[in-house]
Amino acid sequence: MSTRDRLLACLVAVCWGLNFVAIHLALEQFPPFFLVALRFAVIAVPTVLLVPRPGVPWRWVLGYGVGFGILQFVFLYLAMAVGMPTGLASLVLQSSAPFTVLLAGVLLRERLTARQGLGTAVAITGLAGIAVHRADVDGGALLLPVLLTMCGGLGWALGNLATRQARAPHPLRLTLWMSVVPPLPMLGVSLLVEGPARIGEAFTDLGSTTGLLALAGLAYTVLVGTLLGSGLWAALMSRNPSSSVAPFSMLVPVAGIAAAWVLLAEPPSTTELAWGALVVAGVLVGSARPAAHRRQPRGHAAGQEPADDRREDADEHHEADPDLLGAQRG
Fold it and tell me: Major place of localization (predicted)?
């Protein structure tokens, strides 16, 4: 990955870390399944009317929408609604990173380098340390919310693979059209599970402090979490190996725990900060390019990565399944 892409990946991590606080505020007003439908419906309507199609096979748009849009947020919102702490949710959801690396190796035949393996292992150790410490402090997290959040991480990983295979020429368009997938299925689930009465109740006091904060949280998840964050993430996944991009998601809980501390009075301990530093170190190790790849041939402008270098980097880290590539070309 180039230095620019690593900085963009860090920016996405901060945006998504703050997103957990926004989700917490929105769930104070709206039921979880309906909130998923509402979140994506706000984007889907103008997308269908105004945004050109993403220029990729529809199977990858559907896969991205089901994995990243439906599975991730159904399980995450449900977990937070039944008691998953905001900071801990930002941590456990990052199980998407090892899920992505594992699934990419099995399904896309991407090779994991020794450096990436070491960095991922170090970051996972930091995540595990934060989880164990949180469990000790809180008297043990409930099993169901943790399992639900991990299912959300698996959905995110599936969405990552669909994005990687799509290789969208316009990643933001892919992100926007992905948002067309969740609203109708999730509205149906909400009507069946939560019921029209519960949905109607959520709109009765939007002028209250809780309601206004919920609308602000919804606006953040749409504009920053989905449009900015997911758009940048799709761009990164389209031009880099999945195993290089996915570990940056491990920075999200660092931002999420810090945001929960400042905004929701969930203060982290010194131990959590130390484990968080280990997560950062692991991501930096796993994403750094070998020295041979950082050297630029003569004649190239400073800060510009040669095209041949990019091809070499892609060839080293990614061997896609011929059947999948053939299907994509079709």
Answer: membrane
